[in-house]
Automatic annotation (TrEMBL):
This is Non-specific serine/threonine protein kinase. Residues 703-767 form the HTH luxR-type domain. The keyword Transferase applies. PANTHER family: HTH-TYPE TRANSCRIPTIONAL REGULATOR RV0890C-RELATED, REGULATOR-RELATED. CDD domains: LuxR_C_like.
Length: 767
C-alpha cells in the first residue's frame, strides 16, 4: 500500500517524539493509575506546560495494557466542530458511506474494543469533545479516554489532573542537587543540544536557578530560553530575562502569571529574530498541520522575504525552536507548536496582514488541488493521494477561508470539485458534502462551478444512500446546467442518474444514460468522464444479459487505465468486470478479476472496493465448492463493510445472489461450522484478509492452541469474550474484580498474539 494507506489503517499510532523526554516520573505514574480506575482522564493546564508530551509518554507506557490498541487524535489544527467525530472516525479507519450518523459508526466500532483514545488539544472544541466522549463512554465500557485541554470537558466520570510546571530549585541549592529538579534537567538537556560543552558549575548554579525560577518551570519557556546559550552565558541570559520580567511586573503591579511568563519569553524570542525570520514566523502561522519547503516558497516569500534566502531563514527558526522539523518518508515538513503559531498569527493580525496571507495560503492550496486534478490520470496518482493526506488540514483551512465571500466561494467550489476523487477514495463523503453545501450557499447565481459542485454533492449523497438529498441536489445541478447551457454538467447529471439506476438494478436505463454520457464526454475531450461512464456502461449492459458486449467494454477500459498509470478507477473497472462475471455464473473469470483488484489494493488502500471484491470472491468460492473459504471471505468482507459504514445490499443486483450463497454455505457446512469460519474471517485484519484471498502463507494468522496454551481460568475468560461480554460482565460472571478480568484478557492477548477481542472470539470459535 502507499504510505498514506498504511498510515490510515486502523491500529496503534502515536506521533514520534522528536526530542528527548525529561522528568515527569511522578505525573506519569499518577496518570497511569487514574487510567486504571477512570474512564476519562483530562490533563489540564496552560499552553506550554507540557500536556501533549505527557499524554504521549503515558500512552506509550500503557499501550501493552490495551493490547497495543491506542489511537492518538490531534485536534490543534481542526477548527470545525462538526468535523470532530469524522476526524476521530478517520483515525480509527472508518468511512462514512451511509446515512448513519458518524457518532453511531464510531460507537459501534468501539463497543467491544479495549482501547485507549487520546484526544489532544480539546480546548477550542470543548462542547463537541464532551459530546463525543460522553457518547463513547456511555456505550463502550472498555474504552478509556485520555484528553488534554486548557479546561476540563465536564463529562460524568472525568478525572481532571492539572499539569503543573516542572519542579524548580530554591536559591542556594548545590550543584549536586540540581539533578533532582526536572526544570533544571530539561534546561541542561536542551542546553547541551546547542552547546555540547555546557555544564552547571559552582560559578553559574545560581544563574541557572534564577533562570528556571524566572521561567516558572514551563517546559516550552525553558526550551525557548536554552537556545539563547549559543550567544549568551547563563548569567547574561538570566539577567536579560530578569529585566524583562521586572518591566512586566511594574506594568501589572503583580508577579507575572504563567501565561504572561510564556508570552514574554515568546515575545523576546521574536525580538531576537532577524527581520526575515519574523516575517516567516508570522506568515507561516497561516498553515494548518504543517508545511514543506515548496509551500513556504509559494505562500510566504516576497515583500521582504527573499526566496533565495528561505532555507537560511528556516534554519534560523529551527535553531531558535520556533519551527520543528519532521521527516515523513523522505519528505521534510515544518510545524509550530500551537502556542507559538498563535503568536505569529497575532502578529499578522496586528499588522493588518492576516487576510492577505490567508489569501496567499488559499492560492497555494488552489494550485495544489488544481494540479491534483491534472495529474490524477497518471502514474503520479498514488503520490498525489499521499500529498493531499498530508495537506488535509491546510485544505480545510483554505476552504474555510473561501466561505467568507461570494468571490472566494467560487474558488472554493473549484477546489472541492478538483479533489472529488479524494473525498470518495478516503471515505470522507460527509466532509465533501459539507464543503459543497456551504460553498454553494455563499457562491453567486448560476455558474459552471455551482453546477459541478451540485453533481459532486449528489454523487456523494448517492453513495451514502441519502436518496432525498441526492434527488434534490442533482435536480438543482440539472437546472443550473440547463439555464446556462453547460454541456459538461449535463453529461455528469446523466452519469449520476445512471449510477442511481445501476444501483437499483435497472440495467437498461443505466446503460442508456451511461452510453449517452460517455459519448458526450468523448466529444468534449473529457477522458476521465468518458472512461468512468464507459466501464459502468459495460456493467450495466451485462446486467441486461449481454455479458459479451459488457466484457469487451470493461476490459478495454481496464487496458486504457493501465496505459495511463491510473489505479483508482482501474480497480473499480476490474471489480465491475468481476461482478458481471459472477452474476452471470462465470465464477473462474470473476475470481481472476477480483484477485486483480486486491493485488492493486496492496498499494492503494481503498476499503470500499476491497469490500466489494471480497464479497464477490466469497460468492465465487461458494460455487467453486470451497465453502469454508467462502465463509471466511464473507466474514472478512463484512468486517471491511462495517469499517466503511456500508453494505453490498445497496446494490439491488447483489441482494438475491448473496442470500442464496449464504444459504448454500450454511447448509453445506452446518450452522455452527459456518458461523465459526465466518467469525474467523471477520477477525482478520485487512492486509491479512487480502493475503488469505490471494492464497498466500496463512500459517501464522491464527496460532494453534498448542502454540499458546491458556490456563483454565484464561480459557473461561476467553469463552466469555467470545460470547460478547464486556470486561465488567465477565468480572461479575466469574465473581472476580474488574482489574483481574482485564489482566486475564491482557494475558490472553499476549499469549495468542492478538490485538482485539474479535480475534479472541474467532480463536475460540475455531477450536
Amino acid at each position: 500500500m502507499t504510505n498514506a494507506a498504511v498510515q490510515r489503517l486502523p491500529g496503534p499510532r502515536l506521533p514520534a517524539e522528536i526530542t528527548t523526554y525529561v522528568g515527569r516520573g511522578t505525573e506519569i505514574r499518577e496518570v497511569k493509575r487514574l487510567l486504571g480506575v477512570a474512564p476519562l482522564v483530562t490533563l489540564t493546564g496552560p499552553g506550554g506546560v507540557g500536556k501533549t508530551r505527557l499524554a504521549l509518554r503515558v500512552a506509550a507506557a500503557v499501550r501493552p495494557s490495551f493490547g497495543d490498541d491506542v489511537v492518538f487524535v490531534g485536534l490543534a489544527e481542526l477548527h470545525e466542530p462538526k468535523l470532530l467525530v469524522n476526524t476521530v472516525a478517520d483515525r480509527l479507519g472508518l468511512g462514512d458511506r451511509s446515512t448513519r450518523a458518524p457518532i453511531d459508526l464510531v460507537v459501534d466500532h468501539l463497543r467491544a474494543r479495549r482501547l485507549l483514545l487520546v484526544l489532544d488539544n480539546c480546548e477550542h472544541l470543548v462542547e463537541a469533545s464532551a459530546r463525543l466522549v460522553e457518547a463513547i463512554l456511555t456505550s463502550c465500557p472498555d474504552v478509556v479516554v485520555l484528553a488534554t485541554s486548557r479546561q476540563s470537558l465536564g463529562v460524568a466520570g472525568e478525572h481532571v489532573l492539572p499539569v503543573q510546571p516542572l519542579a524548580v530549585p530554591e536559591p542556594g541549592e548545590s550543584v549536586a542537587a540540581m539533578e533532582n529538579y526536572d526544570a533544571v534537567r530539561l534546561f541542561l538537556d536542551r542546553a547541551t543540544a546547542v552547546v555540547p560543552s555546557f555544564t552547571i558549575t559552582e560559578d553559574d548554579v545560581e544563574d541557572v536557578i534564577r533562570l528556571c525560577r524566572a521561567l516558572d518551570g514551563l517546559p516550552l519557556a525553558i526550551e525557548l530560553a536554552a537556545v539563547r546559550l549559543r550567544s549568551l552565558s547563563a548569567r547574561q541570559l538570566a539577567d536579560r530575562l530578569n529585566k524583562r520580567f521586572t518591566l512586566l511586573t511594574q506594568a501589572n503591579r503583580s508577579a507575572p502569571s504563567r501565561h504572561e511568563t510564556l508570552a514574554t519569553l515568546i515575545d523576546w524570542s521574536h525580538q531576537l529574530c532577524t527581520e526575515q525570520e519574523r516575517l516567516l514566523w508570522a506568515r507561516a502561522s497561516v498553515f494548518s498541520g504543517g508545511f514543506d519547503l515548496e509551500a513556504a516558497e509559494a505562500a510566504c516569500c516576497g515583500d521582504g522575504l527573499d526566496g533565495d534566502e528561505l532555507l537560511d531563514v528556516l534554519d534560523g527558526l529551527i535553531d531558535k525552536s520556533i519551527l520543528l522539523r519532521e521527516e515523513h518518508h523522505g519528505q521534510v515538513r515544518f510545524r509550530m507548536l500551537e502556542t507559538v503559531r498563535q503568536y505569529g498569527e497575532e502578529r499578522l493580525r496586528a499588522n493588518g496582514d492576516l487576510d492577505r496571507m490567508r489569501r496567499r495560503h488559499r492560492d497555494w492550496c488552489t494550485a495544489l488541488t488544481s494540479q491534483f486534478a491534472v495529474d490524477w490520470f497518471s502514474p503520479a496518482q498514488l503520490d498525489w493521494i499521499d500529498r493531499i493526506d498530508f495537506e488535509h488540514a491546510n485544505l480545510r483551512q483554505a476552504l474555510d477561508y473561501c466561505i467568507g465571500s461570494e468571490g472566494e466561494a467560487l474558488v472554493g467550489l473549484r477546489m472541492v470539485t478538483d479533489v472529488k476523487e479524494y473525498w470518495v477514495m478516503r471515505g470522507l463523503l460527509t466532509e465533501g458534502r459539507m464543503w459543497c453545501a456551504r460553498l454553494v450557499g455563499v457562491a453567486p447565481g448560476d455558474t459552471e462551478l455551482r453546477a459541478a459542485a451540485g453533481w459532486v454533492d449528489a454523487f456523494l449523497a448517492l453513495i451514502q444512500g441519502d436518496i432525498p438529498a441526492y434527488e434534490t441536489t442533482l435536480a438543482e445541478a440539472a437546472g443550473v446546467a440547463e439555464r446556462i447551457g453547460d454541456d459538461r454538467a449535463r453529461a455528469y447529471v446523466d452519469h449520476i442518474r445512471a449510477y442511481h439506476a445501476l444501483m437499483g438494478n435497472d440495467g437498461a436505463q443505466a446503460a442508456e444514460l451511461f452510453h449517452r454520457a460517455s459519448e458526450s464526454f468523448q466529444d468534449m475531450g473529457d477522458l476521465s468522464g468518458e472512461l468512468w461512464s464507459r466501464f459502468n456502461y459495460g456493467l450495466a449492459v451485462s446486467l441486461t444479459g449481454d455479458l459479451d458486449t459488457g466484457r469487451v467494454v470493461m476490459r478495454d477500459c481496464v487496458d486504457r487505465y493501465t496505459e495511463l498509470g491510473e489505479v483508482s478507477w482501474r480497480c473499480w473497472a476490474l471489480w465491475s468486470l468481476s461482478a458481471a462475471e459472477y452474476l452471470a455464473g462465470e465464477y473462474e473469470s470473476a475470481l481472476e478479476a477480483g484477485l486483480a483488484v486486491l493485488r492493486l489494493q496492496r498499494r492503494y488502500g481503498d476499503r470500499a472496493v476491497m469490500a466489494f471484491a471480497l464479497t464477490v470472491l466469497a460468492g465465487c468460492s461458494t460455487h467453486l465448492g470451497e465453502l469454508r473459504r467462502a465463509a471466511r471471505l464473507l466474514g472478512a468482507a463484512t468486517t471491511v463493510w462495517n469499517s466503511v459504514g456500508a453494505s453490498p445490499t445497496n446494490y439491488t443486483a447483489f441482494v438475491e445472489p448473496m442470500q442464496r450463497d449464504i444459504i448454500l454455505v450454511t447448509e453445506g457446512l452446518g450452522p455452527e461450522t459456518a458461523a465459526a469460519e465466518f467469525t474467523t474471517g471477520a477477525a482478520l485484519p485487512n492486509d491479512t484478509a487480502i493475503s488469505y484471498a490471494l492464497r498466500e502463507d496463512m500459517s501464522r494468522v491464527v496460532p494453534e492452541a498448542a502454540e499458546a496454551p491458556l490456563t483454565k481460568r484464561e480459557m473461561e475468560v476467553a469463552e466469555l469474550v467470545a460470547k460478547g461480554m464486556t470486561n465488567r460482565e465477565i468480572a461479575k460472571s466469574l465473581v472476580i474484580s474488574l482489574r483481574t478480568a482485564e489482566t486475564h484478557i491482557d494475558h490472553i492477548r499476549t499469549k495468542l498474539g492478538f490485538s482485539n477481542r474479535t480475534q479472541i472470539a474467532a480463536w475460540v470459535a475455531g477450536r
